[in-house]
Amino acid sequence: MSSFLLQGPVAVIGAGTMGIGIAQVAAAAGHNVLLFDVNVEASTRALTTLQQRLRQRVEAGKADANDTEQLLERIQVVTALSELAPCALAIEAIAERLDVKQSLFRDLEAICSQQTLFASNTSSLSITAIASALKHPQRMAGLHFFNPAPVMKLVEIVRGLETTQATLNLLQQLAVAWKKQPAICRSAPGFIVNRVARPFYAETLRALEEQVASPATLDAALRDAGGFAMGPLQLTDLIGQDVNYAVTESVFRAFGHDPRFQPSLVQQELVNAGHLGRKSGRGFYRYDSSSIQESPAFSCIENGSLPQRITAHGCWSSLPHFAALLQQNGIAIEEQKESAESAPFLRLDEVIFMLSKGKLSSEVAEEMRTPVVQFDLSANYQQASVITISAASCNTAAQTALVIRFLQSLGKNVIVLPDYPALLTLRTVAMLCNEALDALNKGIASAADLDLAMCRGVNYPLGPLAWGQQLGWQHILATLENLNAFYAEPRYRPTSLLRQLAAGYVSLSFSATQDLIP
Ligand code: NAI
């Protein structure tokens, strides 16, 4: 029990979706919780719903009856702000408006003791700006829980310009005692997750806008081939198109309309139409029981021939799961010793089969004067049920079919995209890396906390930085440079730290960063 870390109860202000979840987390860790909402009914309703939900868990044999009743007894609804006077920590989860939050903390500062810590669960406002309303902004930080708060492991602890190390340390200890995994970051737009995750949605939304494939196929390329837990489009349907669009817009605005955060017109149209996703019954998909769910488009070759000769070239250490997949299938590989330092590729008869580096397959085929099929990145080629490819326009149908047959023989379903540079997972991961490196370079968070936040906050299969390091910074840089050249848009410009890593001038440390900003 973590109540010894604080000399008084925890106040939770705002009893909506997040507030009641945070109250549950604090009470489960042994704190007495005072729950306040301007709307008294909202507090009592939220507590009644929590009681029902937790007691159902007891009835289902999933929780202990005594523990549950004790937890519920620790949460007390209060009807006046003045009743929060004894709290040692006040966490607000009220309306997402700067003036409203500032006014609340001004009132709390007048009521509570000088030792009380203040925390905001804001997802988009500056902690520094909220804290500026306080006479003692040193004792205020962001405590950004993810929805649902009792389930999601990540808590971003956000340091405002005035937040002291002592405040951060105590909140960090509390988060650990509350069985959460804290990631510390500076107050900057989107903190870690809402900033670094933008390209996950943006790249697929762009591919949809460019009519590369259907929503179901695009989602399968990221989920079943790439290794993400959900496809970006199905995830935005779950989050709510309006909510996801608003986060992108707020980050875009906060970064001075930087084109790398440009909101999607396709998504804006969904919002305009009220197609908000699951909650409205329709988004990129339809959720009424009568509708037939769209399936991904796989290319299937029933009777084509398999390659007669397969040779592996280059160094496969950047693609360990692909090398293991070949071995696992007993594919006889003729190792080509002379090219041990270069990028890995397979030669399937006369067809070159390689991981994309951001160029069109047709362009690569022209350069190499040979038929080319490129494949997309995956977090784990062995586990993935699908592999995504694109073929050069000069290939004969039989040459591309040969590759599809080969991949089917490895047990994979195959998505054949039109010739699209960096396909889908590779361009997404390259952009996630770029964003994480930019945040690292600007001292927003350490490499370890950046990766932790993306794995625990949005369930990525690998942290973007660990993923980039495994694939190789040169590959990530080349991908972005090729996309930059293809689109001639500043969206894909590589960040300075990526250039330094790719050149080998610096290496990535997963220990804490040196803090240069005072
Ligand atoms: P909500 O709308 O479900 O609940 C907000 C509650 O605050 C309402 O019950 C309202 O009556 C109350 N309230 C509003 N102004 C108040 C005031 N001045 N004093 C006391 N109570 C007041 O909102 P939700 O979704 O729980 O969000 C709350 C905060 O958490 C926002 O800052 C939001 O950005 C942030 N957040 C939301 C997440 C989500 O997924 N919903 C995730 C992470 C953060």
Account of the 3D structure:
This protein has helices spanning 17-28, 40-59, 65-73, 98-111, 127-131, 165-177, 193-196, 198-209, 215-225, 232-239, 241-254, 265-273, 320-328, 361-368, 397-409, 425-441, 447-457, 464-471, 473-487, 496-503; strands at residues 10-13, 33-36, 75-78, 89-92, 117-120, 140-145, 154-159, 181-186, 310-313, 334-335, 345-348, 351-355, 372-375, 386-391, 413-417. It is α/β, with parallel strands linked by helices and 518 residues long. It has 3 domains: 10-187, 3-Layer(aba) Sandwich (Rossmann fold); 195-293, N-(1-d-carboxylethyl)-l-norvaline Dehydrogenase, domain 2, CATH 1.10.1040.50; 299-416, Transcription Regulator spoIIAA, CATH 3.30.750.190. The strands form 2 sheets. Strands 3-2-1-4-5-6-7-8 form an 8-stranded mixed β-sheet, sandwiched between helices. Helix 2 runs antiparallel to helix 3 (65-73). It is elongated, with a radius of gyration of 26 Å. 1,4-dihydronicotinamide adenine dinucleotide (NAI) is lined by residues 13-19, 37-39, 42, 93-96, 100, 104, 121-123, 145, 147. 1,4-dihydronicotinamide adenine dinucleotide (NAI) binds at residues 13-19, 37-39, 42, 93-96, 100, 104, 121-123, 145, 147.
